[in-house]
Write a structure and sequence with these properties.
Layout: E1 2-6, H1 13-25, E2 30-33, H2 44-54, E3 57-58, H3 62-67, H4 78-90, H5 93-100, E4 105-108, E5 111-114, H6 130-134, E6 144-147, E7 154-158, E8 164-166, E9 172-173, E10 179-183, E11 197-203, E12 208-214, H7 218-227, H8 232-240
Parallel strand pairs: 1-2, 2-3, 5-6, 6-10
Antiparallel strand pairs: 1-11, 4-5, 7-8, 7-10, 9-12, 11-12
Helix pairs in contact: 1-2, 7-8
């Protein structure tokens, strides 16, 4: 199986369109989405429609669940909460229902898919550090777990003896006897100081994973945010990649 893993679109249509175009150019037939279709950006309806049209599997992110009131928006920072409230007013009934029906996890072949963390995914934990990732391996059984949520691409592996470390190579092989937690980064709002959209390609035949970065029309996405009356900081951070 070969698949593209996307996450954290955040209503950024320009970034999503660039990524889908690249996936199709590579003739990858399967797309799995790790959630946060909405929030921050100006095109929630369009991004939901494109994701549901193109992705074989979509799971829920915290912004998706907050939009449909399954997660308490009071725990969000004020800018994120304002964007959620704006999004709630924009969504049509059909797309609201699509977000309501999203589940927290999914498994396919030797992959486990979750937005934040395998342990208690509804609590939306961030896996930034090695220690934060290390304790998660006991909560999934597959060789590979794909996550998003941090907006920072990263790869952690654990060997049969429990040794755990980061991998900086890209692309990198999936080695027998090792298990992996792979963060795909964010399509719509990267936060690793690289403003390019980020997604992952899993190649089960060649036993490898690649993190792909793509340029997209950032000025247009920024202008849409400003024109929509959303907080200007949400436009500024797109170019800064933070």
């Amino acid at each position: 199986m070969k698949a593209a893993i996307i996450s954290d679109i955040h209503s950024n249509l320009e970034a999503l369109q660039a990524v889908i175009k690249d996936i199709k150019k590579r003739r990858i037939k399967r797309i799995f989405c790790l959630g946060d279709l909405v929030g921050y950006g100006a095109n929630p309806n369009e991004c939901i429609m494109m994701c549901t049209s193109e992705a074989k599997i979509i799971i829920a992110g915290n912004h998706d669940w907050a939009t449909v009131e399954k997660t308490d928006v009071s725990v969000f920072n004020p800018v994120a909460a304002e964007a959620i409230q704006w999004t709630q007013k924009q969504l049509n009934k059909g797309n609201f229902g699509k977000l309501q029906r999203l589940k927290l996890t999914s498994s396919i072949e030797d992959l486990f898919l979750v937005h934040a963390s395998p342990n208690k995914p509804e609590q939306w934990e961030y896996l930034f550090s090695l220690d934060e990732a290390k304790c998660q391996f006991e909560f999934f059984k597959t060789q590979v777990c794909f996550v998003g949520h941090t907006h920072v691409p990263s790869v952690v592996y654990q060997d049969a003896n429990g040794y755990t470390d980061f991998i900086s190579d890209n692309p990198f092989p999936l080695i027998e006897g090792r298990r992996y937690i792979i963060n795909t980064g964010s399509i719509g709002q990267p936060r690793d100081l690289d403003p390019r959209a980020s997604y992952a390609i899993y190649d089960g035949n060649c036993r490898s994973v690649e993190i792909v970065r793509l340029d997209y029309n950032i000025p247009l996405a920024q202008q849409k945010i400003i024109d929509a009356g959303l907080p200007e900081v949400l436009a500024d951070r797109l170019l800064a990649g933070r």
